[in-house]
């Protein structure tokens, strides 16, 4: 459901600079007459990338082969676009394919002298990449949304479901909703959603009175919707899935007048989903996600350069480069990446709006609340313009 299995929805990728590898070897001929042994030839470096004292060397670890190649390429394209748009001359980004062996990709990146890793995309790959990067004192900025993977050396830049849920719950409480129910998928994403909902509702002074789980299929989510429809006593129902599956659940839930008066809620997975506006059953639903104010221009520029529309997640590749350039102001080429500079309480500004990192490595984003109304999706509570220090 999320990036460790690759959220099958909001993902994108693109191209950046690549590097080749080779090894050179020498040989010596020993003369027949006794003579001093020749000095051994120096062991060549595994990397052919020349030493660069003027630019920061940064590795982009994304899948460019395999099932997730499209997403990885989109992230790479967006990262490259950020370099072009900013005219940055002090950053050198090299792409390494994690499609087969993410640990080996990390090893090659370190051999090549990279001091920062942007990636990986999948949370399942974080452990193997971090195992190689941590001894070399190289931090990661992962595109995953797996909150459990965050550490002081692993920064998570993906959109977190817990923050989306907390923003929506707070908005709903402000509108008088006190009791909540939920449909959550089985698996890691569902576990995180249910935990976040329970915490957010409790902190907001409400209560969760019903919850149903399901397998990620139209039949299973429809059955779960019918089960929770039979229960009463809640004013809002969270459907924690993509727009398409959420729409199917809403149709089952609203059938025969079911759930009258219950407000439907969604998660960050609803961002950019076309099914929302085309499903009457979702009319009136609320959900929270990053702002799209800057995304339209980003998508236009991306299409002009690469001839195709970006995946929504491509902005993470772009913003990770903007973030790196900001930190690079106080980062000498070839030196250890100053991870503490990532903890600026004032945060940073990217395509997806303001964001900042806490000491745990988790991102905090400024989110807006949207409503599905009359065949359109509208902003009903704008994202904050920044953070209070």
TrEMBL record:
Listed Pfam families: Peripla_BP_6
* Signal peptide boundaries: 1-25
Keywords of this entry: Amino-acid transport, Signal, Transport
Gene3D superfamilies recorded: 3.40.50.2300
The record's section on InterPro entries has: BCAA_transport, Leu-bd, Peripla_BP_I, TAT_signal
Top-rank taxon of the source lineage equals Bacteria
An example GO BP is: amino acid transport
Leucine-binding protein domain location, by residue?
Answer: 57-333
Q: What's the family?
A: Belongs to the leucine-binding protein family.
Q: What is this protein called?
A: Penicillin-binding protein activator
Q: Which organism is it from?
A: Novosphingobium pentaromativorans
